[in-house]
Predict the 3D structure of the following.
Amino acid sequence: MNRVLVPLAMEAAAPLLGAQVHSLEGQTMGTTWQVRWAGHTMAVTAARVRAAVQDALDLVVGQMSTWLPGSDLDRFNRAPAGSVHTVPEAMAEVLQAACALAEWSGGAFNPAAGALVNLWGFGPSPRYTDAGFEPPSDAAVRRAWAHTDWRALRWDAMHRQLRQPGGVLLDFSAIAKGYAVDLVSRRLSAMGLPHTLVEVGGELRGHGVRSGGQPWWVDLEAPPLAPGQPAGPATRVALHGLSVATSGDYRRVFEHGGVRRPHTIDPRTGQPLANGLASVSVLHTECLWADAWSTALCVLGQEEGMTLATAHGIAALFVQRERDGQLTETLTSAMQELAE
């Protein structure tokens, strides 16, 4: 049975009479992006929209990519111990949110866990897909874990200054795409396009409505019932002033010795997740927060995650893998309100 989630209030007016839905797409951050907007072609040309989108995405990549040599993040990761760096504004905004969530989640979300991500083959190098790749030893995990203390960064938000304690590798993979969605959405709104749907790598943010006054309807990403099988029943969401992001154990994964190793690492243990959660989807007004919260809750697991999400009023959908192979869903009260 499908579920429908709608915002508690619909505020934006319908696009002008005769407006059409336009679409552009491209590639970024190792994935794809798509922008849809309702409006008149003559008001803002597709070329201007594409240029604005690309400029926003290039800014995020140039500041926060772990894969681009010379990005601001890459330069920080390579910097000597004790060096202090002035962080550019966009990166500072992301870092501030990341550090806040690291505190709230007790380290389940950790922007300084890059050494562990790389060790398990989910960073730039080595890759878990490389021939002969094997999971790291416990000793190697302990050595990497010793360089994941985000508090040692001594983040000074007022002056946007960050200290490299030595060997700490920042990784914004669990938050940067969400920020990119927000940035593109804001850029389009500033261009006079209030009715937009922005997507980067499966994370979305919708504003206004499409032609005819309908909201931007999207289906939440659902995990497969079993490997190689189709996903279960869909949950449809009206993205009207809302963003959505999903984290799960089924995207990038490898098996070794009969053990599945999903790409999400628990920064507290240094190990890939093994808590039985198939996915967590989060709805939030900002995609940055939807992105980061979905990862944090996925790491925490259903019981701890539900408690933290409820305390912060987060609309979240947890999908748990039971021992018999079935999937069960649990919604926070904030998410249940959208379904009523």
Q: What stands out?
A: The mean pLDDT is 89.
